[in-house]
Write a structure and sequence with these properties.
mainly alpha; elongated; about 220 residues
Length: about 220
């Protein structure tokens, strides 16, 4: 009985840690998306400097999962929970890394663009949709809501459409402003980074469905 109670205390602590990590990653992503408009150099540097926090938390979560697997050998739903958390842990760390990449792209644009350069494309709708996907995926994890997780697959089509618009805009701008070609390519890569964050949210949603229903699901696009 004591071992059983200890196991469930460890599971509860593990859940709290992965949710704390999710909150940290959401904040990192929100700040990275904000500097698309503000071009705040201090925020760019802060996001890059704080990357270690998420990396450290990812290691802690993985170590705790492996310890629980080794000591308690969980089965059935408890085993699905541990497996799902291991995978979601990795996805969250990758989202944080991509947020750092967005900050780096903006820093490069600010360093290399001509004085009159401005982004013609508005990235905020795409950023907002991606942040909505990440939030929904974490909400689905908290509430263990497979139906909510499935709604994230539909949001991905909108993100892909916005990425295509960004691509067309950048191609047109390069034709008009070849002197800013490097900055414009970095601008398009911001759209690609946002798209990949959406893919990570889909992967989290798939793990929530597996946790709740025991079914391995892959979206039609099968994100990488």
């Amino acid at each position: 009985m004591a071992k059983h109670m200890h196991f469930h205390r460890e599971i509860d602590e593990l859940k709290k840690t992965i949710l704390t990590m999710g909150t940290l990653v959401e904040d990192r992503l929100r700040r990275a998306c904000a500097i698309l408009e503000t071009r705040d150099r201090d925020q760019v540097q802060a996001i890059m400097a704080e990357d270690w926090e998420v990396d450290d938390m990812e290691i802690r979560v993985e170590e705790e999962c492996l310890k629980i697997l080794a000591l308690h050998q969980p089965v059935a739903r408890d085993l699905r929970l541990i497996v799902s958390i291991i995978k979601i842990n990795n996805e969250l760390e990758r989202i944080a890394d991509i947020a750092v990449n967005i900050a780096k792209r903006i820093s490069t644009i600010m360093a290399t663009a001509t004085a009159d350069f401005s982004l013609r494309h508005d990235y905020q709708p795409m950023a907002a949709k991606v942040m909505e996907m990440v939030k929904a995926s974490l909400d689905a994890l908290v509430t263990e809501d497979a139906a909510l997780a499935r709604t994230i697959f539909l949001m991905d089509d909108q993100v892909n459409g916005l990425r295509d618009v960004a691509y067309k805009t950048v191609i047109e701008e390069i034709g008009h402003r070849p002197d800013n070609a490097a900055s414009l390519i970095n601008a398009y890569l911001i759209a690609r980074h946002l798209e990949r964050i959406g893919d990570r949210a889909i992967n989290i949603a798939e793990e929530v469905i597996y946790l709740v229903e025991g079914e391995i699901v892959r979206s039609s696009e099968d994100p990488v």
